[in-house]
Amino acid sequence: MHSQLAGRNACVIGAGFGGLALAIRLQAAGLATTLIEARAEPGGQAQQWRQDGFIFDAGPGLIADPAALRELWALTGHDLADDVELLPVATGIRFSWPDGSHFDLHGDAAELRREMARFAPADIAGYDALLRHLAHARHQLPGAVNAPAPDAGSMARALPAMLRLQAWRSVHDTVSRFITSTRLREALSVQVLMRGGNPMAASSLSMPGDLIRPTGTCWCIRGGTSRLAAGMARQFERLGGTIRLGDPVARVEILGNRATGVTTRSGWQADFDSVASNADIVHSYRDLLGHTQRGRRQGRALARKPFGPGLFSVHFALEGSWPGIPQHMVLFGPRFAELMNDIFNIGVLPQDQLIFLHHPTVTDPGLAPTGRSTFQAVMPVANLGRLPIDWRQIGPLLEQRLIDEVGRRLIPDIHDRVIHRFHYAPPDLAQDLGTHLGSAFSIEPRLMQSGGLRPRNRDAVIGNFHLVGAGTWPGAGLSAVLHGAGAAAGLMLEELTQ
Ligand SMILES: Cc1cc2nc3c(=O)[nH]c(=O)nc-3n(C[C@H](O)[C@H](O)[C@H](O)COP(=O)(O)OP(=O)(O)OC[C@H]3O[C@@H](n4cnc5c(N)ncnc54)[C@H](O)[C@@H]3O)c2cc1C
C-alpha cells in the first residue's frame, strides 16, 4: 500500500461492472472504498429474475476476455475460481439467415478455417488479411489496456497512422475491403452492435480488438452473468471494502472545484477524498452535480450527443431441451444496412428484425428444471430519443413477434412449449438504472465519440471526480468497462498520491 493512501478514502457510485471493478482496484491498492448502489443487488445491467426454478439472466452472456476478470482477483493473490465458475461455450457464435443458411464463428482456429472453407472459401485469405490489419491497428493506435484515454498530443501523433489505416471507415466498410461475401460481411461487423455502435458508421479502429472476435475460447458464468457481479462484490468485501445497497446517491457534494462527499436519497452523508461515478453519464452530471454550473453545462452537452440503441429483450422458458441450438446465435432478417438505418438514423420500428438469441441452458442446464430450457431473444431498437413510442402497447406485440420468429426459424412447435415469457424494453432500463434514453450502451461510438474523443475518466474541472462505465473511455460492453475501471483507478490513485 502507498503510504500516502493511509487514512484516505473514496466513494464509487453505482455497482455495474465498471463500478465493481474500480472499487476492487481501489480497495486492493489500500484506499478505503465505499461502493454505493441504488438497487438492492450489484451488477447493473446484469440483472437476474427467478421463477419456478428458472433463472432468467440479462446482460452480457459471453465472456471473451476472462484475463481481465482474473486480474481483479490476482491483484491480491486471490483466484477468480474461488467465487465464479467459467464454463467454455461450444461453437462460439452462429450467424443464421432467413433461408436457413448459417456460419459458425468458432473459437477454435482449425474449426473456423473449415467453416470458412465451407461457407466462403474465396474469403479465407481476405479474413487472414483482415485480422492482420486489425492487429496492426492495435499496435499503431494510442490507448493501451487499463490506461487512460489518449491525450491531444498522442492523438495528434497517431493521426498519420489513423489516416494510413483509414480510421474514418466504418466497421462494415473495413470488413468489406477484405471480405467479398455479403453475408460474411454482416457476420463480421454485426458484433459492434453489442458495443452500441452502428456497423455502417462506427469507426472500425476505435476498438479494433473488440470488433471481430479473435479466435479463442469464449466463456459464460455458471449460474448466469449476475453471479459474476455477486462474485466481484464478494471479492471487494473480502478486501475490506464497504457496500451500501438500495440507497441511490442524490448529490455529490462540491466545494470550489473539489468533490468532498456524497448525500444519498435516504439522507445518509459521508465525506470522501475522491469520488467516482459508474452511474449513467448524463445522470451523473445533470442530477448528481446538477447544483453546480459544471454539472448543468456538462449534463446538457452530453444529452445532446447521439446515444446508442436500446435493446428489447424477450425472456422465455420452454418445455424440452435443444442440444442443437448453440448458446449464441444471431438471426439476421432480410435487410441489414437498411435496418441499421432504421435503428440508428430514422427511428422507426421496422417489420423485420435482427435477433441476438441466447440459449444459456445448452451450456448450463442448472438454469432451468430438468428437461426444460431458457432463452433470451434480444432485438436492437432505436433509443427513446429517436423512437418515442408507447412501449406498454408495443411491448406485448413485439414479444409475440420475436417468439414467432424464433419458432419459424428454430422451434416449430414453440407455442405449445412456452412455460413463462416476459419482456424488458428500453423504458424499463431507463427507469430501473436511470440510463439516458433507455440506451443499453450510452454514448454512441461514432468516430467523433470514440477513442480519445469519448468522455474521459477524470472530469476536466472537478479534479477528484471520476467516471467509469459505458459512457466513458473506452466504451460500452463488459471488457471495455473493465479496462475503463483500470484507467480510472490509475487516475484516482495518482491524484491522491501526487
Ligand atoms: C440485454 C443486454 C445484453 C447485453 N449484451 C452484451 C454483450 O453481449 N456483450 C457486452 O460486452 N455487453 C453487453 N451488454 C452491455 C453491457 O452489459 C454494459 O455495457 C455494461 O454492463 C455496462 O456496465 P457499466 O459499468 O457501465 O454499468 P451499468 O450496468 O449501467 O450499471 C450502472 C449502475 O449504477 C447504478 N446507479 C445509477 N444511478 C445511481 C445513483 N444515483 N446512485 C447509486 N447507484 C446508481 C445503477 O443502478 C447500476 O447498477 C448488454 C446489455 C444488455 C442490457
From TrEMBL:
Key words, A-Z: Carotenoid biosynthesis, Oxidoreductase
Xref: InterPro entries: Amino_oxidase, Carotenoid/retinoid_OxRdtase, FAD/NAD-bd_sf
Pathway: Carotenoid biosynthesis
Tree of life domain: Bacteria
One BP term from GO: carotenoid biosynthetic process
Amine oxidase domain: residues covered: 18-489
Record has Oxidoreductase as a keyword: yes
NCBIfam families in the cross-refs: crtI_fam (TIGR02734)
Family classification: Belongs to the carotenoid/retinoid oxidoreductase family.
Protein name as it appears in the record: Phytoene desaturase
Organism, scientific name: Croceibacterium xixiisoli
